[in-house]
Design a protein that fits this description.
Structural class: alpha/beta
Helix content: 40-55%
Radius of gyration: 21 Å
Strand order of the largest sheet: 1-2-3-7-8
Largest sheet: 5 strands, antiparallel
Number of helices: 16
Number of strands: 15
Shape: globular
CATH architecture of the largest domain: 3-Layer(aba) Sandwich
């Protein structure tokens, strides 16, 4: 929907909270992110567009309006004018995202919020902070606290790992959904975990036909056409689409856990890993956290296109703040990742779920493997540069 001049055009947080965050520069004022049009911001003339520090709510403006805002003369239309911005990129002719942590107005784009960069807390205090934050965040899963409107039925995206296990533990009556090709790791792990947690699990079996249909739908919704983005978003889209067909309105996801809590292999020994610039575990985690706005834009748009509203309790401001305060040893240590999250999961999920290893979704669901197979069948051989990417560009040419 395009903007209109009222604070109902703000998603994720009450307008008063966002005004206070602007006034005092607080990057984590509570909730799970916000974005939209604020009609009467403090210390500013005229309406502004705002987007939270982690970009948890996507927000777009027409590229020409955004460019005009940087010119000396007042732009016409301004980025904040109705029709010049939207939560949905498909509603605009030439969309460009408002940067996370920014305020956009007729005067241009200003970065106003940055993530806290404080020394770590001592281990005992840090772990207690994570425990309390997760308690609070998942304890509210049954409530309509995400500010997006509607209190429809809730389901959980479930892969059998500690992230989705913790989320599912906060919604004990919610059904769980997983999508993947027959025989894949994620479906097997989800089945085992669901049995251990005594949960209702629906398995959405992906076929080549469904894969190609979902690729087109996700590409249209997100504007992403590269193999990595599509392979990550497609299983989420198909699971959410099945949930929506079952009458589910809200889809709880474990997004953010890997970035905030040290879930990537590159954070374990960053001094010897050329995928990160820093040589400390905390620094490597900070680098991965900074990738969240781009990832979350993709995932939120894909889920909304599937017909559900995402709910991400592990991206609650309280959880984010507690994770940023962790010392390196509670992020990754002795080959174990997500140390603090796994400790917080004790007693919430079975031990087999708490300690489960998880594959990246594009590999755990076999989606990347099958896209490669389809590309080769279509004549795009592995000896070609980015053969899957070329295949997808050809597939999506008319979309």
């Amino acid at each position: 929907m395009a903007g209109s001049p009222s604070d109902t055009d703000l998603r994720g947080a009450p307008s008063g909270r966002v005004r206070d965050a602007l006034r005092n520069g607080d990057p984590l004022p509570g909730g799970r992110g916000f974005a939209g049009r604020l009609t009467d911001p403090p210390d500013r003339d005229g309406p502004v567009l705002v987007r939270d520090v982690l970009g948890r709510q996507p927000l777009f403006v027409e590229r020409e309006a955004a460019a005009a805002a940087t010119r000396p003369a007042p732009p016409d239309p301004a980025p904040t004018d109705p029709g010049a911005w939207s939560f949905d990129r498909a509603a605009l002719s030439d969309p460009t995202p408002v940067p996370a942590g920014s305020v956009a107005s007729a005067d241009g784009v200003e970065r106003v919020w940055t993530l806290p960069d404080e020394p770590p807390a001592d281990p005992e205090t840090a772990q207690a902070g994570v425990d309390a934050a997760i308690d609070a965040a998942i304890g509210e899963l049954g409530d309509d606290t995400d500010g997006v409107g509607g209190t429809g039925r809730l389901a959980v995206a479930f892969s059998g790992g500690v992230d989705s296990g913790v989320v599912a533990a906060g919604a004990p009556d919610a059904p769980c959904y997983v999508a993947g090709f027959e025989g894949c790791h994620d479906v097997a792990a989800a089945r085992e975990a669901a049995a251990a947690m005594d949960r209702d699990l629906r398995v959405v079996e992906i076929t080549h036909e469904e894969l190609l249909r979902a690729v087109r739908a996700v590409a249209r919704a997100t504007g992403r056409r590269n193999p990595m983005d599509l392979a990550i978003a497609v299983p989420l889209y198909l699971a959410a689409e099945a949930a929506a067909a079952d009458g589910i309105a809200r889809f709880a996801v474990g997004q953010g856990a890997d970035e905030l809590f040290g879930g990537y292999s590159k954070v374990v020994d960053p001094a010897t890993d050329d995928r990160v610039e820093t040589d400390t575990v905390r620094g490597a985690c900070t680098e991965t956290v900074r990738t969240l706005p781009d990832q979350l834009e993709r995932d939120v748009l894909a889920l909304r296109a599937a017909g559900v509203e995402p709910v991400a309790p592990l991206l609650d401001d309280r959880v984010v703040a507690s994770a940023l305060a962790l010392p390196g040893a509670l992020l990754a240590s002795d080959g174990e990742r997500k140390v603090a999250l796994r400790r917080a999961a004790a007693g919430r999920v079975p031990e087999s779920v708490r300690t489960a290893d998880k594959k990246a979704v594009q590999y755990g669901t076999y989606v990347s493997r099958e896209l490669d197979r389809l590309a080769r069948r279509a004549g795009f051989k592995r000896r070609m540069d980015d053969h899957v990417g070329q295949y997808l560009e050809d597939l999506l040419t008319d979309d």
